Amino acid sequence: MRIQRMRLRLQWYDLTVKYRRGKDMELPDTLSRAQLPVNKPEMEGLECVSMLHFVSVSEQKYSELQNCTREELSCLQRIIRQGWPDHRHDLPNELQPYWDSRSQLVVSDGVVYKGLRIVVPPSMQAHMLKLIHQSHLGIVKSKQRAREVLYWPGMSSVIEQMVKNCGKCADFQNKLPRQPLRPTETPSFPFEEVASDLFEFEGTHYILLVDYYSKFIEVDTLKNLHCRSIIEKLKAQFSRHGIPVILRTDNGPQYAAEEFKVFCQSYGITHRTSSPHTPHSNGEAERAVQTVKKLWAKASDKHLALLDYRTTLLDSVGFSPAQLLMGRRPRNSLP
């Protein structure tokens, strides 16, 4: 019957049939044979490598996570491996909060993950909260930092309450309403357009550079406010990230100096200044200065505070300044 059906389909065509040995018919002969067994890779091992690559953890901290998970979440590990019950109420009370996330939970190398986020054992949650809030980034950004790499049931509510109860955050909360932002055209690539400003904090002068594309902030200490010192710091920053097409500044004496004009021309930079009567028109740099001052006023470690800002996701794009600028997620203090 198979041959008859094939002949009916082919009777519309004028074909010349030629015999060829099977070993010479490589493609048709291969397709007609049963597929050979394929050794599938060990998915748990691949998943573990992928997770460890995404979530950078020191050996000491990972060992602590493994030990605490074994002692406190062994029942959860067993259920993930053996299968979940049909109903939430069939779970022990302490595991019922994990019910809604059950399809995303996996066990890898002795640690429980929700997707790519580490499930934190109860005894380590207080320490993680301290790390999440060490730079006092506020409710939204603290949640974003945590949600990128950590998980436990009710984590967002705990973070929100912690920030609300923080005295430092309350002291530095903006009392004035935020001014509407002036729309600007987004640059096409990192460091195409940057803004610079000078500021003083606790008796020390600093120069700030912010990238319009990624919102990445660079801050350097200034020994003095001479134009030459500012040029040298900018050269150092440009050596790390490349020479921008456009540099925006206010109309301060250092940026308005002839020496600075010559520097921009020699580096092929278009220098745009704000009006002397409206220095706030250099808004990107002004906002970045306020961000840095608030971070440093609340944080005990200025460098960690900047790192936390650079590695926290931006609301508008879902990536951190560091990811947008460098194309990678730099290691920070979490987890």
Automatic annotation (TrEMBL):
Pfam families cross-referenced by the UniProt entry: Integrase_H2C2, rve
Domain Integrase catalytic, first and last residues per copy: 186-335
Biological classification of the source: Eukaryota, Metazoa, Chordata, Craniata, Vertebrata
Species name: Leptobrachium leishanense (Leishan spiny toad)
Protein name: Gypsy retrotransposon integrase-like protein 1
GO-annotated biological processes: DNA integration
Recorded GO MF terms: nucleic acid binding
SUPFAM superfamilies per UniProt: Ribonuclease H-like (SSF53098)
Alphabetical list of InterPro entries matching this protein: Integrase_cat-core, Integrase_H2C2, Retrovirus_Pol_polyprotein, RNaseH-like_sf, RNaseH_sf
